[in-house]
Amino acid sequence: MSTQQFLVSGTGLGLRREMFDELSNTHLQSIDFMEVAPENWIGIGGKFGKQFRSYTERIPFVTHGLSLSIGSPAPLDEDLVSAIKAFIQEHDILLYSEHLSYCSDSGHLYDLMPIPFTEEAVSYVAARIRRVQDILEQRIAMENVSYYAAPGQEMAEIDFLNAVLTEADCDLLLDVNNIYVNSVNHGYDAAEFLRKLPGERIAYAHIAGHHQEAEDLIVDTHGADIIDPVWNLLDIAYDRFGIFPTLIERDFNIPPTNEMMAEVHQVRQIQQSYLQHGVANG
To answer: What is the pLDDT of residue 223?
Structure first.
């Protein structure tokens, strides 16, 4: 069981602009931390800028980037990294995370593309992550991503992920739903994959819903309720690693706030059950 100290704790919610008018002080008292994509907020002023500041002044925040494109063949966008650094400092953001994927080359692809699972890619990506950490002057967390094809695969997904985390010496943003999605789409055991992760590197976790396209095809949408197998996988993760900060992601089809908060409360209830049995992460 991991014993690292986390920068945030408890249960979190991804903040979206559609939520601004419905999230009351009562709701916020049940949220331990929030997350935004920095690209959506850098340089935003006016009404939305003031509303966002009102949240960051009251609640701990983390950021989850969309466009770093860590696996891209194009040069690393160091101007973006510097802008993110300034944003983090401006709002006292506690952590920056990104996707272990790429989304651009000479232009943006507007999707998260899979990095080939190869030794060469491990070294390439790890060096770019280390450079980002040097610029930011802090550790970052990389998220295990959903993918629908594995071009040029020479390693298992779990071996690629663990090798990148080790060589880059960075943390892990554990996406529980992505493990479930990939386990169905690529035919592996989700619990076995989970148990092979380095628990000591977990910074926090995402849990979300998805769309079942076919019996053997799931699309990671963040646009539906979380299903029981994903909740069960979170339970397995807590049992394996202890309690870690866990955030609800919902990007569209955003339900009424009370419905969305029910999932936040469900995370808290699972965490509390482990606390009561004395297996909380130290």
So the answer is: 61
